Amino acid sequence: MYEFTMGGAWFKWSLLDAASKRLAAGSFAAATIAAVPLGIYVSNIGHAVGYRLGAAAAGAPVERAPASAMLAGAEPWMAWITLIFGIVSAVLWWRFSRRQDEMFNRVQNWALGMGGGWTMAACFVWIALASAGAVAMPSTIAIAALFYVLLFAFWFVAVKRWA
Amino acid sequence: MGVTTTLPALRAAGKLTQADLARAVGVSRQTINSIETGRFEPSLSLALTIARHFERPLEEIFALEG
After folding, report:
1. pLDDT along chain A (163 residues), means of 10
2. Under an 8 A CB cutoff, do B31 and A2 touch?
3. Closest chain B CA to residue A17
4. What domain range includes position A130?
5. What is the rounded distance in angstroms from the CA atom of residue B28 to the CA atom of residue A113?
6. How many domains does chain B have?
7. Candidate from A1, A106, A161 with C-beta closest to B28
8. Distance, in angstroms, between B43 CA and closest chain A CA?
């Protein structure tokens, strides 16, 4: 059975049974594969920002980051990799969660509920401001990133509260 | 309104570790620790499972504060 360590950031791996270890390891591996295309996309943004900050002349054309140039034109299959391996990771994590006890599931369900609710609230405000012309419309990547940040933040709050 | 418990005393009287009790009722040792320290209120089914393990009425193990 699990035991949280590092404030909820990890588990005592040795206490998990064999099936739980397989499911958790499989979920993490699938999530890592799903995140690779996103990493390439994010690294391209980071490179562009760094280039603009360091460019000697303002408005100089931004070269593509080496990673994204390597996969130029391959975006559709990258998105399919993220989608398929993301689903595999989620299913394996769901099966791992079913093997854990009620405190684990209370922590997880509360974090998911609060993270989702606050993401929705933030999106409503963001879209309203964008409709008023105050900010740009949120991208799907930004909404997903906001959800994951809130999910992990509420996860740590829940572990501190109950575990 | 919180919940108080006599679980630590019951467990000590039965010479059980938290891990022993956790294994017996099907939860993690951390859950038993959180119940005993008052940080986590068990569900009705878990509370009844613990009561059945000790062969005591539920009200003898868990009670409302105040």
Report:
1. 87 92 96 84 72 64 51 67 92 96 95 96 96 90 88 95 93
2. no
3. B28
4. 101-163
5. 23
6. 1
7. A1
8. 8
Cα separation, A79 vs A64, in Å, equals: 19
Residue A10, pLDDT score: 87
State whether residue A45 is helix, strand or coil.
helix
Contacts of A72 (CB under 8 A, 6+ apart): A64
The answer to whether the Cβ–Cβ distance between B30 and A100 falls below 8 Å is no
pLDDT at A43: 74
Q: Are residues A106 and A128 in the same domain?
A: yes
Whether A3 is in a domain gets the answer: no
The minimum CA-CA distance between B8 and chain A, rounded to whole Å, is: 17
State whether A81 and A67 are in the same domain: yes
Predicted confidence (pLDDT) per residue in B15-44, tens digit = 999 999 999 999 999 999 999 999 999 999
Instruction: State the pLDDT at residue A90.
Output: 95
- Mapping DSSP onto H, E and C, the string for A102-135 reads HHHHHHHHHHHHHHHHHHHHHHHHHHHHHHCCCC
Whether A102 and B43 lie within 8 Å, measured CB to CB: yes
CB contact under 8 A, B31 and A103: yes
CA distance B30 to chain A (A): 6
